[in-house]
Design a protein that fits this description.
Elements: E1 6-8, H1 12-37, E2 44-48, H2 55-68, E3 73-77, H3 82-90, E4 96-100, H4 106-111, E5 114-122, E6 125-130, E7 148-150, H5 158-168, E8 177-179, H6 183-191, E9 197-201, H7 207-213, E10 218-220, H8 226-232, E11 237-241, E12 257-261, E13 263-269, H9 274-287, H10 312-320, H11 331-339, H12 341-355, H13 358-385, H14 392-410, E14 414-416, H15 420-444
Parallel strand pairs: 1-14, 2-3, 2-4, 7-8, 7-9
Antiparallel strand pairs: 4-13, 5-13, 6-9, 6-10, 11-12
Protein name: TAXI family TRAP transporter solute-binding subunit
Transmembrane segments: 12-37, 340-364
Organism: Duganella levis
Amino acid sequence: MSKILKFTQFSFRDLIVAAAPTVLTIVGICLLAYWLVDPAPPRTVRLGTGQENSAYEDFGKKYATALAKHGVKVTLVPSAGSSENLRNLKEGKVDIAFVQSGSTNEEAAEREGLSSLGSLFVEPLWLFLREEKGKPPITQLTQLRGKKINYGAKGAGSPRLFRQVLELNGVEKDEVQRFSLSNTPATVELLEGRIDGLVFTSAPEAPLIQMLLQTPGIRLFDFNQAEAYSRKLPFLTHVVLPQGIVDLGRNIPSEDYNLIAPTATLVARDDLHSALVDLFVQAASTIHSGAGWFQQQGQFPSAKYTEIPVDPEAAKFYKSGPPLLQRYMTFWLANFFDRMWVLVVALGALILPLSKVIPPLYVWRIRSRVYKWYGQLRAVEQKVEEAQEATRMQVYEEQLKRLDEIEELVNQVSIPLSFADGLYGLRSHIQFVRKRILFLMGEASPAAPATVPV
């Protein structure tokens, strides 16, 4: 009969088993909090741009390139312009879009769940007119009565703005022959002489603007009352197109031109992920921060010049710059750690109370290896006590053999040294029961007294 006892310094396996329910509970709750409380940003976003050859289209491509570096695909959604972009935002057809200031107001934007990511650049109201031989140039908008003017395509921002400007001059809408062509076909019509003028609202970078400024026979209208317009319509700014800005060598334009200009803003739906808001604003700071024809270095992007409430994440960027982690990490890695605060809160709430359960479970699991044999030992005692006089000696002998079996199995139990007292206590109790049975056997057979082994 083997007397070798198995001891270990520590039972790592038992610790794992004891801690498993707690660990799984913590992991499960953390994963649930991670994905439900603050989901990961989507990898695709829809950006409403503008017409072909427009500044909106050109800038949209730049945003797509900038966000592609961070693994976010920007799908460009063309439109007639600002008004259509605003409608597409309200209907959920795009997630973010270029919108001209003055297109809506604060109450309407809040009601529709829209927020501004900041103003990007000024986009003057360009009124190009065909020069007529032998006639003086048009210097007042009242002189447009009876003229054929292309206001811009339906859905663009220029028709609404130009109507407001004409109303300030007392020109009724039926006094001007209105056309609603897109920018490119309208330019063709102007050059062919089939219309007298056309209206854009666009940044000067637009190819059509650059071309018309250098086209002989086409003259830009000078809003010499620009300051008054900016007072009447607060969303407008008075800007000046300097002499020679297009081509210094050819002195184009040959004089300063006063223009009135709304600002282009990035407008997003409230459900656009905050991480994507950060990406767009950072891209805007790269694309629009330089000096231009109508802006100083660093003037844009800005939280100013917009009547739509600025998104909190964008406002934070304009105040403090990009998030700290994104200054040193990739976008996705920084976003992951930024969202880890959810896990920190969950872990802080769970680890301390649940960790108090693990030590008692570990102790119970170790001691249960010893305690379960006490049930076997008690069963032996019961059978000895219940033995009938006729079969008493047979029962005693059977239970002695059962005790040998129990002792053999107990000696094979592996147990940490810190719990050895329990194992030695069990072995001493086995010996105690064995001595008692031998004593009873001696009483039952006086002719052959039992000897009790030491």
